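Researcher: Next sequence.
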Amino acid sequence: MRWSDLEKGRLVTRTLVARQLDGEQAGFPLAAQAARLHRQREDKTAETVELITSRPKAELSPSQWLQANIDHWTIETGLHARLDASRHDDRCRLRRRKAVRIHAMFNRWANSLFIHWRTRPYHTTTDFTAAMAENHDRRALSAILSQRFPS
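Model: Next structure:
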């Protein structure tokens, strides 16, 4: 399966070759397919990655797989990049399941508030976090406890 499109004005060509396999062949218990994805962007070095999935070919065709991979990177460069850059999500050392979940919920909540507030003079989530923390977290607590988001 070959796919070419423009991303940010640059041509990107993706080639995905998939084959069926079983868990024993792959060394992964539930594996049903493996694929090799080759990406070539203008002015960049080509990149090849290997992918594995538990979904059989009848449920996930090469074109669907390629679209799922593209969609994944849309999410990764959107919310995840914002969380990594402003909330240092990748450096989080929490290990308990409940703690990780609560931490993730609050980080996403804070970013949602920032998106709402970015029409104001705050240009980054760091500026937003500093503004929320002023005066002993008055704005942050007000946002949590009130029915309406504070101005």
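Model: The radius of gyration is 21 Å. Helices lie at 23-26, 62-87, 97-117, 125-145.
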